[in-house]
């Protein structure tokens, strides 16, 4: 596996380092650089690849678990979630599915309701 292109330098927006690492790993997952079902590199390897501490990698892995992108098995490691899970849970900051944009444009943002379904109500 290639070392990721990751710059520890200043960014346009302030962010915690562990979030920047989590965002970069998220990008690698969504671009299939890291494949569903594969094992995420170990904490020491990730820390070395990104030039950060193991604690930073642990926090980043926790964020990835919260996003539903990885599963961690004690004494086994962290694994990229299966593709079916990745499709069900939107990734924060990810671009929307182009088909959903086309559907929204076609329907004016309205979802189609089955015949006989009740109209949605407006909350006061």
Describe this protein's structure.
The structure is a single chain. The chain has helices spanning 17-30, 43-50, 54-66, 83-88, 98-107; strands at 70-73, 77-80. Strand 1 and strand 2 form a beta hairpin. Mean pLDDT is 75; it is low at 98-105 and 120-124. The N and C termini lie far apart (55 Å). The protein has 124 residues and is mainly α. The chain has a domain at 17-88: Arc Repressor Mutant, subunit A (Orthogonal Bundle), CATH 1.10.10.10. It is globular, with a radius of gyration of 19 Å. Helices cover 41% and strands 6% of the residues. It has five helices and two strands. The longest helix has 14 residues, at 17-30. A two-stranded antiparallel sheet has the order 1-2.
Features:
DNA-binding; disordered C terminus; HTH gntR-type domain-containing protein; mainly alpha; Arc Repressor Mutant, subunit A; two-stranded antiparallel ribbon; DNA binding; single chain; 124 residues; transcription
* pLDDT averaged over residues: 75
Shape estimate: globular
Largest sheet: 2 strands, antiparallel
Strand order of the largest sheet: 1-2
Give the SSE order as H and E letters. HHHEEHH
Q: CATH topology of the domain at 17-88, what is it called?
A: Arc Repressor Mutant, subunit A
CATH class of the domain at 17-88: Mainly Alpha
State the total count of DSSP E strands.
2
Query: Counting H and I runs of at least 4 residues, what is the number of helices?
Result: 5
Radius of gyration: 19 Å
Task: Point out poorly predicted stretches.
Answer: 98-105, 120-124
Kindly report the name of the CATH homologous superfamily of the domain at 17-88: Winged helix-like DNA-binding domain superfamily/Winged helix DNA-binding domain
Fraction in helix: 40-55%
Strand content is 5-15%
Quickly give the structural class.
mainly alpha
**N-to-C terminal Cα separation, in Å?**
55 Å
CATH architecture of the domain at 17-88: Orthogonal Bundle
Biased composition (Basic and acidic residues): 103-116
Pfam families: GntR (PF00392)
Region (Disordered): 87-124
GO biological process, one term: negative regulation of DNA-templated transcription
